[in-house]
Every structure is written in C-alpha cells, then in structure tokens.
Amino acid sequence: MYPSTLETIWEAYCIKLQGFLRSRVSDDAEAEDLLQEVFIRVHHHLCCLPQPEKMDSWIYQIARNLVIDYYRRRRDTFELPDDLPAESELTEEDPREALLLSLKEVIHELPEPYRQALLLTEYQGLSQVEMADQLGLSVSGAKSRVQRARDRLRDMILACCHVELDRRGRVMDYYAHCCCCNPDS
After folding, report:
1. How many whole angstroms separate alpha carbon 134 and alpha carbon 136?
2. Burial group, residue 142, by CB count within 10 angstroms (0-12, 13-18, 19+)
3. What is the dihedral of CA 39, 72, 149, 91, to 10 degrees?
4. Which of 112, 102, 108, 114 has the alpha carbon at shortest distance from 160?
5. Which of 19, 21, 101, 128 has the fewest CB atoms within 10 Å, measured from its CB?
6. Could you give the domains of the chain?
7. 95: which DSSP letter?
C-alpha cells in the first residue's frame, strides 16, 4: 500500500529525493529548495494522482521536471540581433561577438527542418509545443527536431572552430580553424 497523506509521503521519499536532487544540482541550498517544491506540488496534486501504485514514478517525474526548470532559469541566453555587426566593427577582445557572426553563418548551413526548428524556438521564442502546432508535428517530434538541430549546430561549430568555455558555459575564447565560419576569409 502506498502512502496517502503528505506526512507519510514525506517520510517515505524525503531522503531518497534529497539524494536524487543533490546528485543533479551542485548547490545544496538549491537542492533543498527543489525538495520543498516537490512536496508542495505533491500536496497540491495528490488528489489528482490517477493511480496510487504509480506514486514513485509520479514523484520522481515532478523532481526531474523541477531540475530541468532550475537549469533553464539559470541558463545564460542571448538573442542574435537581426542586424549583426560586420566583422570589421567587432572588437578583438570580444570572442562572444565573433562567435555570434560565425553562428549566424553555420545556422544557415543547417538542413531546412533543423534551421527552422532553431529559428522558431531559440530566436523567435516559440515553445516546442507551439512549434509542434505550427509545423503540424507531434510534441515529441518537435522536441527531437530541436535537439537534433542543437546537436548538429554544436558539431558543426566544434568541427571548424575553437571555443573555450568557462565553468558556467560562457564563451571565454573563440577562433575559427577554417574559413567556413568566416565568409570573408
């Protein structure tokens, strides 16, 4: 029999969930906040659990989703402006701007479905669900397409460019190995 009150759920899952969250989030305070949020969501939705025998998977799915949301909130994002500066306007010290120019060129080299997926989600701000609706895809198909586009873009950039990132994933240094990222070369 599975627990039905929040107190018994806490007793049954607290320690396991705490370990689960701490293995995925390096900051202990953040992991503790996520643990509290898991139980808040459990409390709010306990009445809606369709099958009590699936309590384990339901609670861990809540925890996984909160971890994903946590990293999405922390992600440093920047948009490509429509009017990117010409290379002559860039300063030598700004590797991020130089990478932006190369990124624009590489994105245009992606096959159409992948280019479209990246432009719609990353640059026009559509969610993957909205993209799926707009393109007539299943949500899982849309998610797959976006992930494949990101993977291809990363592989293309790393095949021809040197990119150094800091521990938080921010660009510290960049230079092209070949002329494919630099159309003026």
Report:
1. 6
2. buried
3. -170
4. 102
5. 19
6. 6-74 (1.10.1740), 87-176 (1.10.10.10)
7. H
Element (H, E) at 11: helix 6-22
Do 24 and 71 contact (CB within 8 A), yes or no?
A: no
Distance CA 60, CA 16 (A): 10
pTM score, two decimals? 0.43
Tokens 């992930």 sit at which residue?
147
Residue 98 near residue 91, CB atoms below 8 Å: no
Closest CA to 63 of 93, 40, 90: 40
Q: Note the pLDDT tens digit of each residue in 48-101.
A: 665 677 788 888 888 988 888 887 777 655 555 565 544 444 444 555 665 666
Say if residues 164 and 170 touch (Cβ distance below 8 Å): no
